[in-house]
């Protein structure tokens, strides 16, 4: 079935450093900005939760209509935010974990300035592959 | 005129020397490169600078190298290249390289590195296309060879960071300066 | 805290209060309307009592006193469920006019977050109240049911009594009473209204008594109004303001009511409430309470009740159906609860609510159940206990309302609002917000308001949740837009922008700014719209269609305004500041723009020995400057009036759609000398007004300087490098401030170079800190100077190696001032050489052909004064006006490869008064040289003769297509003479050398040198005739070329130097060759063969030295007849030894006959085993060296068997001679032969060594200074003569 999923990596100062519309649903023109709005709004919730729980993976912290936001907070308080349909939630955790590994690799690249946009095409393809695999 | 003791293999030396965490090493080098990039914006400048740094390392390192691995004096450029690839790289980088495609008159060859600890996690962003990330290596070789009286020109023929399948350093012997250098370790 | 003081509490105390139904006759209304007030409006201010001190005793025995109280008056017509549509309309208009109100600050900047209180629109409260009112008089709850009814008749009515009666007859009464939802028999109160204006009141009093008789004394009252005769009584507006909020309050209300009227009204209401209504409610509560407790309290009743419910289980589940009449016990309980609530006896109310909520639940009467739950929640709240309970009830009620579908929607909304208030009072804003969100129905206008309120809740919550705030604002904004409340939409978005300002969430930013811009445009506020739309122009991340949409919208707005906008931060196109390059010409001028891109250092190195060194040059004209210019311009650049300053900069189009840029030009300001001091230095910060000033006097500036304008269109993602120029006309100080351009003909964009440069520089930190960024945009304009323009005619892009051409350099000087003492320097004299003026119109090859009368005297090298590479033009030359200076140049493509030629021409101003003394013209050409003929020579000494050499020339034609005809080979220098060995035809069977062909031919080279080295050295340098060999086929008759006329000779010198550097072996006896060839006319590409061309190939320093510097020959007879019977034969020989080295050599000859002597010669190789006697056949001599060895060894071997030598050397066995350098000597030798035969006289050895080698030039060269060489074989045949 058509799943919409929007994956955004948000740096510690709330700047999106990586965005990907991963989902089999047909693209709609305004989808992009709606997803951004939802995820952006969800930042508040993350803010509240992040310091209360020690868990990195915060599942379904916020929802809008039929879309759920799940977040993975790294130690550096970079947030992987995934907007997805409520039904597929088993793969998400593993998705996040694998993306985290990729992210660490990116972070270790000396030429990458932490907090700056992730432009690596290699990363992008990997992430999309993971999305296909898990979401 | 053989030195005391046979030349030791690169692995032996590598095993004996004390080592540092690879990631620390990689990141340190990375930090240097990044700093260079910020200081002198032009990538070309950075390449030059790296090469120069490498050169400065090389002219010191060769001494260490000859001391640790008591290799015999190389009779010709061919042998030198072999030693660099087999012993030198192994000794200092822990990887061994191979020497291939010699030209006819044996003054130009390429040293090929399959893996290169310097470039773990490294990925060239669009802003730094044209950067020879490992240019320090070429500098080292150049410097070291100059100390043993070989003027060489070392250039990158292939670079994994640019999508090639290996690292290939092309070493070209410009001219062999007559032996007036202090490194006649065996005469 | 006291719940009564909380907002919710206040609201409840207002909304949940006894309702009084008012029935009145039209005349009453008439009387009141004189005051612009309806009857109710007139009374309403007096229906709220802050402290009527009334004792109340409900269920419990001890009374409590009631302070606050309020009555709600309604006309009978209003006592019914309000029509939904009407309600909606009213709400709508509330919103709209609220929107109209804050029209003013729409265009102002959004307020900063943090001042919540004033952000929060005031009309929310009112709106919510209205929203709550939409569900009043529902039948499922009792607190809207009239408690009492007030019948009002005017004294003017005829027979008022009857009026009173038929006022309260059923057909007029509201449905609630009629259909039995509530008890029709309620407390009645009779009021007679008397208008003091029309008649005196005694009739009224009479009526009153009459009423008292009929309706009972204490239920009747009389009210006199309009007592004041002149309608000039002013009241403070606050009295009626709330009820007249809708109407415009310009007419002064209640003008006819004087103070005792008001008092009368007050007393009336006071009495009504305290004496009648409250007691009535009291006793009703008490009665109901007893009844309820009788039937329902206690265990038995509970059971019975349950069982009974079970009994009527099968009743249809009708949510609001009238299964409960007022008489039903449930309604009674409900009424009881509500009365108790209104009398503030919340305990009692709560208990009763609890009691029936279960029943309703069991009966599945959901609406009533929800209503009860709602009241329970409120009761809990007012009791200020167990918040959980309260909230649980509210939520329960809310959900239940929602559950019963559309009919419950409004109630749900009201319930929600109360719930929210409850949460707010407990600072649970976040929860409140979520409730707001849940209130949102599909009916978008309401939900818009709700969402907006929700957003403010997020803002108020601790900690603030700005993201949510923004999000909900946007959501509500969209809803507002949907029901075209554009102003509200804009308002919400504006506050949202304060959240999203400068966000990097690109899509969000685009969405917000685009829509708000659109809406502003919709309202016709184009300027604001413009500024907002500016933000979304550079949306490279958006899809193509979106980008088009944005751009179209933007341009439409601009069109609608009609004027051209000026945008300081127009992001389209993006200007790549790092690509900025300013090219200007101070003392250095460039022949072509491309030249400017050459590295400055390269020019410097070329110019250094032509011009007075740069630093000093600067100072000495700068101190000239400093006389007429203030100090601050010292560091800034110099440019010349009338000469353009070029600025190259990149424009980049971030979009995928093409955009058209027009009239791109620089923004400059040029302040003339006099006002320069007054001219305030603009800092880039106040660039705005700065630019406006510039725009203002752009016209006046036009007189000062001219700007170039460029138009172009940028395709999607395209980047263009644009060159802009400014040409100052007068002296002064010029500043390039920025760039202005027009986007698609309507929007003018500005870009401040200085500020951005500054940013860039500061960003780049420590590099060259002293150099302040502005400086390369500041110029001092000095008065115009002559400027040379030069170019070289017919300089080819590509040529074949060795190609020799005649070029002409043309220099022009447009200005009328003259320039003098010109100098010129060329980077590669090897390629480009300067001719002298007379051979301006020479023609290759004729100029080179050997004249018959060869006078070597013309030595042009003296005429052209070349002082270390700098060519000085003759002093008399000065260029001015129209007449250009033409000067010949010789080009020779020396070596293959691409070569870039740099030419610098230095010239000085005619008049010394000018600020700059000199200028330089820089020219730069690229030349690609293709390989043509590849010539190499190998020289080996001639075996037989001294001083003669065999020269082998290998020529390969490396070209792809060309074919050459080799004309002549010349050896340079008088001390060599070259000659053919074979006939020319033998060498070139086909007259020419076709592409790819290689051939080699041999020549004889003869050295004519005496043993004097000094002058020989000189002569080698000076142009010496040398000797030529014609290689051209016999066919063509063209003469030989003179290799020592100027171009050839000059180039040859260069070649010598060049090749000398390459082969750094210092050897005196070397020879240079020049091969001259020309391409055949039969060309593949006839385009090139327009002019006869000539190729010269120079091979220098071909060494003639053999292995050892000592060479010798043995001369003597080869055959001799001798009669051995007479005696043994003596033969005299001569040995001539030549010392080719440049040192004195001592040579010793050792002959040896003993086998031991020549063992050393047989250097242990075992060739030719087997003994060979003196007789043996001989292989023909072809190679000297090998032969000597082999034979030597043979001799050695041959000695071993018979130890007798066939001949002996007579005379001394060893002689030693001294040899001067380059000299030869002759030594006599003699041998004695005893028998005929053929003898090899090779068993001697020459040991030579060079004495006192004068080694200043040959250090480090491994040149052997001594050696031994075995003898040559020399065969002598002696025949017996008989």
Automatic annotation (TrEMBL), chain A:
The organism's superkingdom is given as Eukaryota
Pfam families found in the cross-reference section: Sedlin_N
Under PANTHER family, the record lists:
TRAFFICKING PROTEIN PARTICLE COMPLEX SUBUNIT 2
Can you name this protein?
Trafficking protein particle complex subunit 2
**Which species is this record about?**
Hevea brasiliensis
Automatic annotation (TrEMBL), chain B:
Classify the source by domain of life: Eukaryota
Query: Where found, per UniProt?
Result: Endoplasmic reticulum; Golgi apparatus, cis-Golgi network
Q: Please give the CDD domains that the UniProt record associates with this protein.
A: TRAPPC3_bet3
> Which SUPFAM superfamilies does UniProt cross-reference here?
Ligand-binding domain in the NO signalling and Golgi transport
Key words of the record: Endoplasmic reticulum, ER-Golgi transport, Golgi apparatus, Transport
Q: Gene3D superfamilies annotated for this entry?
A: Trafficking protein particle complex subunit 3 (3.30.1380.20)
Question: Where are the annotated coiled coils located?
Answer: none
Q: Is Transport given among the entry's keywords?
A: yes
One GO term under biological process is:
Golgi vesicle transport
One Pfam family assigned to this protein is TRAPP
Q: Where are the transmembrane segments?
A: none
List the GO cellular component terms. endoplasmic reticulum; Golgi apparatus; TRAPP complex
Question: What subunit structure does UniProt give?
Answer: Homodimer.
Which protein family is it in? Belongs to the TRAPP small subunits family. BET3 subfamily.
Protein purpose: May play a role in vesicular transport from endoplasmic reticulum to Golgi.
Q: What is this protein called?
A: Trafficking protein particle complex subunit
Q: Which organism is it from?
A: Hevea brasiliensis (Para rubber tree)
UniProtKB/TrEMBL annotation, chain C:
Q: Which parts of the chain span the membrane according to its record?
A: none
Q: Name one Pfam family in it.
A: TRAPPC-Trs85
Gene3D superfamilies named in the record = Tetratricopeptide repeat domain
User: Domain TPPC8 C-terminal Ig-like, which positions?
Assistant: 1117-1243
Protein name (record) = Trafficking protein particle complex subunit 8
Q: Which residues form the TPPC8 first Ig-like domain?
A: 601-749
Q: What is the lineage of its organism?
A: Eukaryota, Viridiplantae, Streptophyta, Embryophyta, Tracheophyta
Q: Which SUPFAM superfamilies match?
A: TPR-like
TPPC8 second Ig-like domain residues: 802-921
């Amino acid at each position: 079935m058509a799943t919409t999923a929007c994956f955004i990596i948000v740096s510690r100062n709330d700047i999106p450093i990586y965005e990907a519309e991963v989902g089999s649903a047909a693209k709609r023109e305004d989808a992009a900005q709606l997803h951004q709005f939802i995820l952006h709004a969800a930042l508040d919730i993350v803010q509240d939760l992040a310091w209360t729980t020690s868990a990195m993976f915060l599942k379904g912290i916020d929802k809008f209509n039929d879309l759920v936001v799940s977040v993975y907070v790294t130690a550096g308080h970079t947030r992987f935010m995934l907007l997805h349909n409520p039904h597929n939630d088993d793969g998400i955790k593993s998705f996040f974990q694998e993306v985290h590994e990729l992210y660490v690799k990116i972070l270790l690249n000396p030429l990458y300035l932490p907090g700056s946009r992730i432009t690596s095409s290699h990363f992008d393809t990997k992430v999309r592959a993971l999305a296909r695999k898990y979401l | 005129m053989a030195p005391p003791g046979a030349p030791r293999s690169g692995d032996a030396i590598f095993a004996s020397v004390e080592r540092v965490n690879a990631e620390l090493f990689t990141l340190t080098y990375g930090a240097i490169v990044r700093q260079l990039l910020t200081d002198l914006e032009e990538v070309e400048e950075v390449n030059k600078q790296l090469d120069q740094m490498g050169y400065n390392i090389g002219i010191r390192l060769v001494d260490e190298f000859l001391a640790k691995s008591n290799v015999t004096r190389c009779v010709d450029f061919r042998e030198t290249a072999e030693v660099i690839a087999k012993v030198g790289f192994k000794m200092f980088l822990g990887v061994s390289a191979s020497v291939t495609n010699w030209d006819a008159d044996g003054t130009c060859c390429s040293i090929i590195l399959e893996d290169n600890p310097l470039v773990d996690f490294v990925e060239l962003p669009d802003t730094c296309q044209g950067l020879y990330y490992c240019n320090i290596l070429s500098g080292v070789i150049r410097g070291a060879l100059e100390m043993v009286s070989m003027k060489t020109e070392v250039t990158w023929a292939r670079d994994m960071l640019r999508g090639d399948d290996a690292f290939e350093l092309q070493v070209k012997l410009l001219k062999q300066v007559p032996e007036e250098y202090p490194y006649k370790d065996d005469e | 805290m006291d719940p009564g003081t909380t907002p919710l509490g206040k609201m409840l105390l207002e909304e949940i209060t006894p309702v009084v139904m008012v029935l009145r006759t039209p005349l009453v209304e008439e009387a009141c309307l004189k005051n612009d007030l309806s009857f109710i409006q007139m009374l309403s201010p007096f229906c709220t009592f802050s402290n009527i001190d009334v004792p109340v005793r409900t269920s419990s025995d001890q009374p409590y006193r009631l302070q606050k109280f309020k009555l709600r008056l309604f006309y009978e017509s209003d006592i019914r469920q309000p029509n939904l549509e009407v309600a909606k309309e009213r709400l709508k208009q509330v919103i709209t006019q609220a929107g109209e109100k804050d029209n003013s600050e729409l265009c102002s900047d959004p307020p900063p977050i943090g001042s919540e209180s004033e952000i929060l629109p005031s009309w929310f409260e009112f709106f919510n109240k209205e929203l709550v009112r939409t569900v009043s008089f529902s039948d499922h709850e009792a607190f809207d049911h009239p408690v009492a009814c007030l019948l009002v008749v005017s004294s003017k009515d005829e027979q008022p009594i009857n009026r009173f009666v038929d006022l309260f007859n059923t057909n007029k009464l509201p449905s609630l009473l009629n259909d039995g939802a509530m008890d029709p028999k309620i407390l009645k109160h009779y009021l007679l209204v008397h208008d003091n204006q029309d008649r005196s009141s005694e009739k009224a009093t009479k009526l009153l008594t009459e009423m008292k008789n009929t309706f009972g004394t204490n239920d009747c009252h009389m009210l006199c109004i309009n007592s004041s005769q002149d309608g000039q009584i002013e009241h403070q507006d606050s009295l009626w303001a709330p009820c007249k909020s809708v109407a415009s309050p310009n007419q002064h209300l209640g003008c006819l009511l004087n103070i005792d009227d008001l008092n009368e009204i007050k007393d009336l209401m006071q009495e009504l409430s305290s004496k009648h209504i409250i007691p009535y409610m009291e006793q009703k509560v008490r009665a109901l309470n007893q009844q309820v407790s009788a039937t329902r309290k206690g265990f038995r009743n509970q059971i019975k009740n349950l069982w009974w419910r079970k009994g009527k289980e099968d009743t249809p589940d009708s949510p609001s159906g009238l299964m409960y009449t007022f008489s039903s016990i449930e309604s009674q309980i409900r009424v009881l609860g509500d009365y108790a609530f209104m009398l503030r006896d919340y305990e009692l109310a709560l208990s009763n609510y609890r009691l029936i909520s279960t029943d309703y639940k069991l009966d599945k009467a959901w609406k009533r159940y929800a209503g009860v739950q709602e009241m329970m929640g409120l009761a809990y709240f007012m009791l200020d206990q167990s918040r959980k309970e309260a909230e649980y009830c509210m939520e329960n009620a809310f959900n239940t309302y929602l559950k019963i579908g559309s009919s419950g929607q409004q109630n749900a909304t009201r319930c929600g609002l109360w719930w929210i208030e409850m949460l707010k009072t407990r600072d649970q804003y976040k929860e409140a917000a979520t409730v707001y969100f849940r209130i949102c129905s599909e009916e978008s206008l309401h939900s818009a308001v709700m969402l907006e309120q929700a957003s403010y809740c997020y803002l108020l919550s601790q900690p603030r949740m700005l993201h949510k705030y923004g999000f909900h604002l946007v959501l509500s904004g969209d809803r507002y837009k949907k029901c075209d409340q554009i102003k509200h939409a804009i308002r919400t978005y504006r506050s949202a922008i304060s959240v999203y300002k400068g966000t990097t969430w690109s899509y969000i930013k685009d969405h917000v700014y685009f829509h708000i811009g659109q809406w502003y445009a919709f309202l016709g506020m184009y300027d604001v719209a413009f500024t907002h739309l500016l933000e979304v122009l550079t949306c490279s991340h958006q899809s193509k269609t979106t980008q088009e949409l944005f751009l179209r919208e933007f341009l439409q707005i601009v069109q609608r305004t009609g004027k051209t906008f000026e945008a300081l931060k127009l992001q389209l196109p993006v200007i790549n500041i790092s690509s900025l390059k300013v090219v200007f010409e101070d003392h250095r001028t460039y022949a072509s723009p491309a030249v400017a891109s050459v590295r400055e250092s390269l020019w410097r190195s070329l110019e250094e020995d032509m011009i007075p060194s740069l630093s000093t040059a600067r100072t000495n004209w700068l101190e000239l400057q400093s006389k007429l210019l203030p100090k601050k311009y010292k560091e800034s650049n110099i440019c010349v009036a009338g000469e353009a300053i070029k600025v190259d900069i990149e424009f980049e189009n971030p979009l995928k759609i093409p955009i058209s840029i027009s009239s791109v030009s620089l923004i400059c300001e040029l302040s003339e000398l006099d006002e320069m001091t007054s001219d305030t230095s603009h800092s880039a910060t106040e660039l705005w007004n700065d630019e406006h000033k510039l725009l203002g006097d752009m016209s006046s500036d036009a007189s000062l300087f001219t700007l170039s304008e460029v138009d172009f269109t940028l395709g999607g993602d395209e980047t263009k490098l644009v060159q802009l120029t400014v040409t100052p006309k007068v002296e002064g100080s010029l500043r390039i401030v920025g760039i202005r351009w027009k986007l698609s003909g309507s929007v003018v964009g500005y870009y401040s170079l200085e500020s951005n440069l500054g940013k860039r520089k500061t960003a780049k930190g420590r590099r060259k800190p002293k150099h302040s960024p502005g400086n390369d945009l500041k110029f001092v304009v000095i008065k115009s100077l002559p400027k040379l323009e030069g170019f070289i005619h017919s300089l080819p892009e590509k040529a074949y190696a060795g190609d020799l051409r005649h070029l002409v350099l043309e220099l022009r000087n447009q200005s009328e001032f003259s320039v003098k003492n010109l100098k010129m320097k060329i980077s590669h004299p090897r390629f480009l050489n300067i001719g002298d003026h007379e051979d301006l119109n020479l023609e290759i090859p004729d100029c080179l052909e050997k004249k018959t009368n060869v006078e070597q005297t013309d030595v042009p090298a003296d005429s052209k004064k070349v002082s270390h590479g700098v060519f000085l033009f003759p002093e008399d030359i000065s260029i001015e006006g129209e007449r250009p200076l033409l000067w010949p140049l010789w080009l020779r493509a020396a070596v293959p490869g691409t070569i870039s030629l740099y030419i610098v021409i230095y010239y000085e101003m005619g008049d010394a008064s000018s600020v700059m003394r000199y200028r330089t013209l820089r020219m730069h050409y690229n030349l690609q040289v293709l390989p043509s003929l590849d010539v190499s020579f190998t020289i080996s000494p001639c075996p037989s003769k001294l001083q003669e050499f065999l020269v082998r020339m290998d020529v390969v034609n490396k070209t792809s297509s060309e074919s050459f005809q080799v004309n002549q080979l010349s050896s340079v220098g008088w001390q060599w003479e070259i000659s053919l060995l074979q006939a020319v035809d033998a060498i070139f069977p086909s007259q020419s050398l076709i592409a790819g062909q290689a051939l080699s031919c041999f020549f004889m080279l003869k050295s004519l040198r005496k043993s004097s080295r000094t002058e020989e050295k000189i002569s080698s340098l000076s142009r010496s005739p040398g000797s030529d060999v014609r290689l051209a086929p016999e066919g063509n008759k063209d003469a030989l070329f003179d290799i020592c006329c100027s171009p050839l000779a000059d180039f040859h010198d260069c070649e010598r130097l060049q090749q000398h550097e390459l082969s750094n072996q210092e050897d005196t006896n070397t020879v240079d060759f020049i091969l001259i060839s020309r391409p055949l006319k039969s060309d593949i590409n006839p385009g090139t063969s327009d002019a006869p061309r000539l190729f010269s190939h120079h091979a220098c320093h071909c060494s003639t030295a053999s292995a050892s510097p000592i060479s010798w020959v043995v001369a003597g007879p080869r055959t001799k007849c001798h009669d051995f019977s007479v005696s043994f034969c003596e033969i005299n020989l001569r040995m001539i030894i030549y010392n080719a080295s440049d040192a004195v050599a001592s040579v010793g000859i050792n002959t040896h006959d003993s086998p031991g002597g020549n063992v050393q010669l047989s250097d242990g190789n075992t060739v030719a085993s087997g003994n060979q006697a003196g007789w043996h056949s001989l292989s023909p001599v072809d190679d000297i060296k090998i032969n000597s060895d082999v034979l030597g060894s043979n001799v050695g071997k041959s000695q071993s068997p018979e130890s007798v030598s066939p001949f002996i050397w007579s005379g001394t066995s060893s002689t030693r001679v001294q040899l001067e350098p380059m000299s030869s000597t002759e030594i006599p030798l003699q041998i004695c032969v005893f028998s005929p035969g053929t003898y090899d006289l090779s068993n001697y050895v020459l040991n030579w060594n060079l004495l006192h080698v004068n080694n200043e030039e040959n250090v480090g060269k491994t040149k052997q200074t001594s050696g031994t060489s075995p003898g040559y074989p020399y065969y002598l045949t002696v025949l017996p003569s008989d």
